[in-house]
Amino acid sequence: MKLDSSIAAVVTGGASGLGAATARRLAAQGVKVAIFDLNADLGESLARDLGGVFCQVDVTSDTDVDAALARARSRHGQERVLVNCAGIGNATKTASRDKASGEIRHFPLAGFDRIIQVNLVATFRCIAKSAAGMLTLPPLADGERGAIVNTASVAAQDGQMGQSAYSASKAGIVGMTLPIARDLMGEGIRVNTILPGIFNTPLLQAAPDHVKAALAESVPFPKRLGDPDEYAQLVEVMITNGYFNGESVRLDGAIRMAPR
């Protein structure tokens, strides 16, 4: 797929971090970008800078996603590109003992479910609704109608202590990538997933310098945090390379996460 002003894209979690870098890279190619996010201040500012549209949306809500897609399509037309970057994380052990009191606790199931709903179910929600819209589009070269890129994490394969919910949610994204690509292959819609390692997103930017230095040192090569635009570069390749389909690819400087 050639990226230009004839292409409309939706980027969930597009107001900051990996999503914002992706929105900027797509807009630089002339793509009409719709940013889906809860953060209205950041989202509206970025949309103005890019000449795009911002939609305040909770991706766990059918109503919100439907309304956001309708707003984006009224401005830009039906999207041919969907990039799913919205997600959350936490760190809670499955069961643990308080060292001071001896109290035994377990991971609250509501907290586990929240991670699954935001990271996994909402990703599928956006894929299904966007793909249904893409089916209405006329095919391009090779019969292509659209391209979808999802965001998992290296935690899908080597999750650390306290990441049971997060790892499960991201492993679910990896696990559904090929079946969804197969579901949509007859309609010319490609589906791929990126598993990012440690990237210099706003969450890490707020960490102390010594913490960031230690994280950078843990990366085999290059010994630094990933730049969000490096993620966006891979998104661009997955969209523009028509033979890229059904793949889940690590982008991590060869890191393999330790248990803690």
Q: By helix and strand content, what is the structural category? A: alpha/beta
Number of helices: 9
Query: Quick one: overall form?
Result: globular
Mean pLDDT: 96
CATH topology: Rossmann fold
| Low-confidence region ranges | none
CATH superfamily: NAD(P)-binding Rossmann-like Domain
Residues in helix, %: 40-55%
What does the main sheet amount to? 7 strands, parallel
State the name of the first-level CATH class: Alpha Beta
> How many domains is the backbone divided into?
1
State the CATH architecture. 3-Layer(aba) Sandwich
- How far is the N terminus from the C terminus? 41 Å
Number of strands: 9
Portion of residues in beta strands equals 15-25%
The Rg value, from CA coordinates, equals: 19 Å
Question: What is this entry, summarized?
Answer:
With 260 residues, this protein is of the alpha/beta class. The chain is built from nine helices and nine strands.
SSE map:
Layout lengths: L7 E5 L4 H12 L3 E6 L2 H11 L2 E4 L5 H15 L4 E4 L10 E3 L6 E3 L2 H26 L11 E6 L3 H4 L5 H21 L4 E8 L5 H4 L3 H9 L10 H13 L7 E4 L9
Q: Explain this structure to me?
A:
It holds the Pfam family adh_short. This is SDR family NAD(P)-dependent oxidoreductase. InterPro entries: NAD(P)-bd_dom_sf (IPR036291), Sc_DH/Rdtase_CS (IPR020904), SDR_fam (IPR002347). The protein is an alpha/beta fold and 260 residues long. The protein has one domain: NAD(P)-binding Rossmann-like Domain (Rossmann fold, 3-Layer(aba) Sandwich), CATH 3.40.50.720. It is 44% helix and 17% strand. It contains 9 helices and 9 strands. The protein has helices at 17-28, 40-50, 62-76, 109-134, 155-158, 164-184, 202-205, 209-217, 228-240; strands spanning 8-12, 32-37, 53-56, 81-84, 95-97, 104-106, 146-151, 189-196, 248-251. Strands 3-2-1-4-7-8-9 form a 7-stranded parallel β-sheet, sandwiched between helices. Helix 1 (17-28) links the parallel strand 1 and strand 2. Helix 1 (17-28) crosses helix 9 (228-240), helix 3 (62-76) runs parallel beside helix 4 (109-134) and helix 4 (109-134) runs parallel beside helix 6 (164-184). The longest helix has 26 residues, at 109-134. It is globular, with a radius of gyration of 19 Å. The model has no long low-confidence stretch (mean pLDDT 96).
